[in-house]
Structure formats: C-alpha cells, structure tokens
Fold these 3 entries.
Entry 1:
Amino acid sequence: MREMQAQNMQPMPMSTMFGMLAVLVIMMVVMMFREPIGSALNVVFCVVDFGGDYPVLTLVIAGLIMITLSTLVRGLLSDPVEQAKTQHIQSEFNAEMRKARTENNLFKLKKLQEIQPQMMQASMAQSTKMMKLMPVTMIFVIPIYAWIWYFVSNTVPTELLDISMPWGTTNLNDTLLNFMPNWIVIYTLISLPIGQMENKLINYFMFKKRLAKMDAGAA
C-alpha cells in the first residue's frame, strides 16, 4: 500500500512553486516598504481607524475588508461550480475507499486504487489553480497588514495599546515568544471566525449566481 501511495505521489507543479515564490516576494517588498505603504493606505483607511480610540473595532473592520477583497477576487477569477464538483467527487471517492477497506472488499479496493492517480491528478490541478490565484489575492491582503502595522504604531494612543483578552491584558506592540507581534495574533483571532462566515456567505451567493448564469445559457 505504501509503495502504491509513493508511486501516486506527484512532484509539486512549477506553477505552484512560482506562486509560492511570488507570495514571498510580495511579502518581502511590502515589509520593506511598510511605512510608506501603510501611510498611503491610511488616506483611505483613516475612515475606519476612529482616531485610534477603538483599536479592536478597527481590527475587526480591517479583517472584514481583507476577507471580502480576497474572496471576491478568488470568486471572480475561479469557477465555484467546478470547485464544488471536484470536491464532491473527491469526497465520494474517499468515502467509497473507506467503505471498501472497512468491508475488506479487495476487488472494489483494487478498482478504486486503479483510478486513484486520476483523482489525485484532478485534486492537484484544482490546488494548482488556487495557488495561481494566491499572488493576486496577496496583492490586496498583505498591504492591509502593512496598514494595520502603521495604525498600531502611529494612530493608537499609548494608553490604548493595552487591551483585555480572555487570558488577560496584553499590549498590541508586544511580541509573542519574541517572534510574532501581538497585534497579528489578536487580529487573526478576531477576524478569522468572522471572516470564515463571511467567506462562506460570499461563496454561496457567487455559487448561486454562477449556477443561474449556466441555467440561463442552457435555456
């Protein structure tokens, strides 16, 4: 079984590696010029900084903006119907594979293993498409991090940098384990669950719009 899985493993496509490299380059450029980038974006984002009086609320709004932009870009540049179809086929295949192993159905298991490379290839192709979109979304996402850094460093008053969290009071400019600034951790904890709900909601409406367009074309 391990030998077959090893044979089915495919090398990482060049497009995926180039996508990861592009993301790293964008991150490096933004971090090198985060001060001017954050200052430039502040011309627009100053409407949600509230003068630094409500830093947590600003982090929430910034998270919603970031998730909305990245989701819309991915939705406009990808096919949600194709993604859903691929995920459904992969899920059904995995379920049949587990069932065959549980029932010790060697004949069915062999047949499934014969088409497993095709399933892996389809899954890899879908992942490659998503990876190609990552540099595009990062062009919108990473500069927002630069603006948040600018907001925390230049807009929030010193006395408001200490905020209450479930584990106690923490300072936004302190670092976690001398590695990651607290504002990134808090920003992620605040925006991630809200962003996930918004992400699902936007994808749902874009999926319905795509289906309606397909139905109209078929009619």
Entry 2:
Amino acid sequence: MRIRVLAVGTRLPAWQQQGFREYARRLPKACAVELVEIAAARRGKRTSAAQALDKESHRLLAALAKNDYVVALDRTGVQYATEDLAARLDTWLGQGRDVAMLIGGADGLSHACLTRADLRWSLSDLTLPHGLARVLVAEQLYRAWSILRGHPYHRGE
C-alpha cells in the first residue's frame, strides 16, 4: 500500500517541505507516504474563487487512481484521536488499497472532491495553513504506524 498526499500548492516555505519529508522518510516502504503537489489555479480579475476551485478540483480528481481509497482533509470531517487513526491505518494496510489524501488550496475542496471521498478527515477545528496540514498528516501517519508497531515514538496515555 502507498499513501499519496495530493495537495494544492507548489511553492511552500522550506520548513514545511522539510517537515513533510522528515516524517515521510521515517515510514517503511510498506506504508510509504508520497507528496504530489497540484498547481494552484491562478486567481485574478477574470477568475472567480469558484472557477479557481473548479480548476484545482479537476486537477486533484485527475491525479486519483481508479481504485484509490480517497480521504478528503476537510474541516467538516471526522476528528480522530491518534489511537483511532492507528486503527484506521491498520484497516487500510489490511485492505491493500492505495490511499489518496486530498488537501485543497486557499478555497478548500470542491463538492466534487468531497463527494468522491470515501472519508472526510478533520485535523482540527482550527484553520490551518495548507502546508502545515501536510506536515501534520505525515506526522500523524508516522505516529499511527509507530503505535501499530509498538515503536516508542508514541508515548500517549
């Protein structure tokens, strides 16, 4: 199984790129996490937010494989305790399907992306920078994997 994080935006600060890479490299090949950056739509006088969101959504949906299990990162999604995320990761590993996680751009994810998703996951009630969301996703996946393997990284209660 592989996990692809499909994220809108290509010019992130170095610390965000390094944060994602740090946690992604810690995961074994059996649970590899890969970042796929999707170009943000240009916004301007002739392009409305809705048009930009539509373009980004088409790009995200086009990057999906037919059989991907799709997780939309969305504020209306389910919030998981880390141990619950570990159980979900264990299920994904057992199913053998690739997982694609969608992180939208400045305007979030379109209705089409949310409809395509098998699961909606909310990282927090807080509004997070999209680059930071990437880092949090990678870190939480690493933490969930460490729980499943009895690795000492996770020292929760």
Entry 3:
Amino acid sequence: MSLAELTTPFTLVVGFIAAFLIGVSKTGTPGVGLFACLLMLFAFRGHEMFASGAVVPLLIVGDLAAVHFYRKDCDVKLLKRLCPPVALGLICGTIAICCMKNSQFKLTVGLLASSILLFEFIRGKMGWTKIATNKPFRWLCGALAGTTTILGNAAGAVSAAYFSSQGLDKKRFMGTNAVFFFLVNVSKIPLMLAATQIKLRMGFEADEAQVMNGTTFILTAVFIAPVLLGGYTGRKIYKAIPEKIFVPFILSLNFITAVYIVVSSLF
C-alpha cells in the first residue's frame, strides 16, 4: 500500500477528525478515544488492521501531551500491579491479530470492550466492592486491556472500568490513565511490526498482512497537527467537567462506542 493510495480526500478529512479526537481523548475525555479509533477504521475501510496500527504513533503523541499535564497524579502502585496481566494480554493480542482477517477483529474488540463495561456497571449497582480488590479481577482486566489494545486500540473501555472500580478521583484517573497508555502504546510498536512480518510469512495477502510498516510513521506526520490541537482543546474540556460526573461520563462514552462497534461490524 502506497501513501498515495491511502491518502484520498475522504481518508484525509475523516482521519483529521479522528486525529483531533485522539488529542481530545488523551487530555480531556478518555471516552472519546474509542470513537476516534473507530473513525480511523472507517477512514481506511478495507484496511482496518493497518488503520489500527497507523493510530498507534498518533496515540503516543497524545499520550506525551497527557503525561506532561497529568503525570504527577499517577497511581504508580496500581500500574505496577497491572504490568504482568497487561503483558500477558499484549502477547495474546499479538497472537490473535496474526491469525485474524480485517472482517473479524472489529466484532471481537467490540464484544470484549462492551462486556467488561457492562460488568463494571452491574458491579457498581450490586455493590460488589470486594471484587475490585481481587487478584483474578485485576488479571482479567489487565489481560483484556492488553488484548484489546493490540486488536483495535480499544483498551480505553477496559481501563476505564478498572480504574473506576479502584475508586480513582478525576485527577488520579487522568494521571494513571496517561502514564498507563503511554507505556502500553510504546510497547505495541515492536509487536505490531513483528505481526506484519509473521502474517506475510504465514501466507496472508499483502493487504491483509499489513498491521504496521514504514507508511504508518509517514501518516503520523500527516495527522500530528490535529492531535496536538485536540490535546490543547481536551485540556480545556477536562477543566470544565465537574468531578462528580467525570468517571460516569467517561464510562458512558466508552460503552456507547463499544456497542456501536459491535453493531457496525455485523452490517
């Protein structure tokens, strides 16, 4: 796939909107991130896995802005506990994407993300507070986060559910979320590059095999400006959202988008 084939007027317009929303999600409303990644998949229709990989460097640009603003509020102990299960999920996600076609992974991501969000809603309503501190629950959320972030950059839904279950306030939510996704997204680059080479050797057609390649990083330069603009805008939005509704608002945005991913993948 050449850059000229990918950068049509349609992909540029939709891609710029998606990139702007990525910036907004990183510094203001994390729930928008899943929708932004969905838009990028829509922009590069027929090359969904490549679009998923192309988003990653843009996410890292947004992560850097978020880390700059919120790093002091990161819950480091919580992140350390998540590292092992997330690493397991990253490996599982890489194996899965090596075996998947473009038509399969959107439905998988949507089902995983919406399921964990629905569980968090039920857990909160039923008052199952002890589950949030259980080791199996942490491993489930961490492994799902690692898996879904490789498959479709959809770990925001899972992390939002887990951070909500840990009772993080607005500041600690944003600080922990910022550092978590910076580390995760940087880790994904070598895995996605390797996945492309593995798929080619497995006999996948060129378009189906491309997850991340040199063109990915050229596209980053094309879309970096709206990410930064979105990051500035997101900071303003963050300050305007009241503390009491911040986490429920983020969870609701992620759930709506996850359900939409499931529905859109079926039609």
